[in-house]
Amino acid sequence: MYLSHHQKPPMSPTWTQPLQHTARFRYRTLYVASALTLLSLFWIWGSHRGSFYFGSGHGRTLMPSAVWRTHTSHLIPPKIWQIVLPKKTPQSDKDLVIDAEKLGSSATWTAMNPGYEYTLMGETSALEYVTRHFAKEPRIIEAYKNMPNVGMKSDFLRYLILGLEGGVYTDTDTVALQPIDDWVPAHLRDRVRLVVGIEFDRRDGNGWYDILHWVQFCQWTIAAAPGHPVFRKMAQRILGALDGLAATHEVPVNEVKPTSTEVMNSTGPAAWTETVFKQLQDYDSELTDIKNLSYITEPKLVGDVLILPIDGFGMGQPHSNSTVGEPPKEALMKHLFHGSWRGE
């Protein structure tokens, strides 16, 4: 059963302002598929040459209509996005080469989701993407170029991409467990425009290192329809946070050495959680505290946002009543926690 709130969201919000024995077999199958299809992952964004237009209305989609026709019941387009950026400023072309070992789990996404368009963003293609699509938004381009560390830059980029084109963003250290087409039940596909998963639920327990909220949403995996207003709001928050960091540290923003908490609060999951929750409150005035979302055990629909309980995107963790071991049927993907931006 899916929990739903009666209030319906706006019909077409646009970004108009600037700016789980079976599970074991499944793992083996997916990794064999990974070995067979890894080379297919190197279709980089450079093949994209479409455009997105700001202003009133939606921009032109970059997805071929032939692919769209097979996904007509979904508001979330059949696109998978991943990002690999160098942790240090590249000094030569060699520094721009992406280590294939970082993509060991990525083929599970293409194998599990045939027909989906896969895009891997690297340093060069990401910068080209931002400068091309945000030519009329110099503050966004400037903010992207001057991000204090790679984690913040990757965060910002995923929000910009999903805001413009939609699809599924997922970190490269994640494993697909169920087809994306099955993430949203059929009777909700014409309503869901954003899918978020809980990464931490304090419940009656203690807090957790670096987790700033009683309930926190992950941003290692996000699914969205293009133009969802939460991404515009997130971009605006980030621009303000960068100004605040520069003022606090009394140096230009690209010279700031942010603490882990500052990263979490500016571009990371703490900021994402607060922005998403404010959007949820726009849809449901009875949501007065993030604790209202604690203890959920089934997906909950609020407006056009589908909130997944802990195992949806957050199985395998030592907290929040997260399932450890064999993936449960509720698990849609698994985060391996291999990546780290700390100390960079």
Automatic annotation (TrEMBL):
Position of the signal peptide: none
Gene Ontology, cellular component aspect: mannan polymerase complex
Biological processes per GO annotation: protein N-linked glycosylation
Alphabetical keyword list: Membrane, Transmembrane, Transmembrane helix
GO MF terms held by the record: alpha-1,6-mannosyltransferase activity
InterPro entries for this protein: GlycoTrfase_DXD_sugar-bd_CS, Nucleotide-diphossugar_trans, Och1-like
Taxonomy, superkingdom: Eukaryota
TM segment ranges: 29-46
Family according to the record: Belongs to the glycosyltransferase 32 family.
Name of the protein this chain belongs to: Initiation-specific alpha-1,6-mannosyltransferase
Originating species: Colletotrichum asianum
Lineage, opening ranks: Eukaryota, Fungi, Dikarya, Ascomycota, Pezizomycotina
